[in-house]
Amino acid sequence: PRGLPPDFYLEGFEALGFGPDGRLRHRLQGRELVHGAAAGIDEAWVTAPRLHLLRPEAPPWILEAPRGRVLEGGALIWLEGGVRLARRRPGRGELVLETERVRVLTDRALAEADGPVRVRDPWGEVRAVGLRAELDRDRLVLLREVRGVYHLE
């Protein structure tokens, strides 16, 4: 990690996060992870992170990026460098969100982005600036400059 002495390194890793009820809530995979800790700071830098936010009754959200950073024991994950958030919707195709940088609060399944966002599915596309996504509820709030095109049949 930048500015921190590394204390361990992993390749081809998978880390699991559980909720208070003991259920698996998320799974983080990556090509490599470099962890560092000093003076109360604990962080890990991840190459090619793939984060699965699991839901008991619905397909998971899958978030992918070229790089990421894990903080607060996995409760906060930053994904950067061209982020893709996707979820299969049975009978309705895949919903895909794309943006440059996303902040994810794993305990709340909340994703936030300040920059440009593109949302697309088989019927159209919406572009906006800023996003607040409550992924466990499939609730997307596009914050400003929202423009969209949908193809109605």
Topology, element by element:
Elements lengths: L5 E13 L5 E15 L2 E7 L2 E6 L2 E7 L2 E5 L4 E14 L3 E13 L4 E12 L2 E11 L4 E12 L3
Antiparallel strand pairs: 1-2, 2-3, 2-4, 3-6, 4-5, 5-7, 6-7, 7-8, 8-9, 9-10, 10-11
Largest sheet: 6 strands, antiparallel, barrel
Percentage of residues assigned to helices = under 10%
Spatial order of strands in the largest sheet: 2-3-6-7-5-4
Average of pLDDT: 90
Radius of gyration: 16 Å
What is the number of E strands?
11
H/I helix tally: 0
Anisotropy-based shape: globular
Distance between the termini: 50 Å
> Roughly what fraction of the amino acids lie in strands?
over 45%
Helix/strand/pairing category: mainly beta
Poorly predicted ranges: none
Task: Report on this structure.
This protein is mostly beta strands and 153 residues long. Helices cover 0% and strands 75% of the residues. It contains no helices and 11 strands. It has strands at residues 6-18, 24-38, 41-47, 50-55, 58-64, 67-71, 76-89, 93-105, 110-121, 124-134, 139-150. It has a 6-stranded antiparallel beta barrel. Strand 10 and strand 11 form a beta hairpin. The chain is globular. The termini are far apart. The model has no long low-confidence stretch (mean pLDDT 90).
